[in-house]
Design brief:
Length: about 180
């Protein structure tokens, strides 16, 4: 059983070393996940699943430093390697409109968020956190819907908060089963 099974607990308070050996590199590498996937496949694509207002989960509120439940701006995408969806990514900003610090998100379209996060020296990243998500977690359901799969096993995920001019952006990356087809 993981912490995700206990209401009010944060499923991301789990060490990446608990993951199977083949997943540890994906969970613990704090460089650009997009760049890592691109280097391990022939064709890379990004598909925007949704973008706009969304709901925040209690553990996401804590990670963003939000004290009241409410809406936020979200962007959900699939990272696709050689025609297979390998990662479902969810990015959250603690406002229904994008704060000035993250105005660059408006023009991303189908470009990866990594272009903004890793090329800007003003962006600071928190340590990575890992979790194993199953059907009891809404993020598992979002990933399953985006991947158009109803029979996914529990999925490993990682997240971290990026800060630019004091404004947090939470990025959660859920690894889909096809990630195992790429070298760790």
């Amino acid at each position: 059983m993981t912490l995700a099974h206990f209401p009010g607990r944060d499923p991301f308070r789990m060490a990446a070393w608990r993951a199977p050996r083949g997943m540890r590199g994906w969970l613990a590498d704090d460089s650009s996940l997009t760049a890592r996937i691109r280097s391990r496949c022939g064709r890379f694509a990004l598909q925007v699943v949704s973008q706009g207002k969304g709901r925040v989960l209690p553990d996401e509120m804590a990670a963003l430093g939000i004290h009241r439940h409410g809406n936020l701006w979200q962007r959900e995408v699939l990272l696709i390697a050689d025609g297979k969806a390998v990662v479902f990514a969810r990015s959250l900003v603690a406002a229904t409109t994008i704060p000035a610090a993250w105005h660059l998100l408006h023009g991303l379209g189908g470009r990866p968020l990594a272009a903004v996060l890793f090329d800007d020296p003003r962006v600071r990243r928190s340590p990575l956190e890992a979790a194993r998500l199953d059907a009891r977690d809404p993020r598992w359901h979002r990933a399953a819907a985006a991947a158009r799969s109803t029979d996914l096993p529990p999925l490993w995920a990682r997240r971290s908060a990026f800060r630019r001019d004091g404004a947090p952006l939470l990025v959660t990356e859920v690894f889909l089963p096809a990630i195992r087809n790429l070298a760790p």
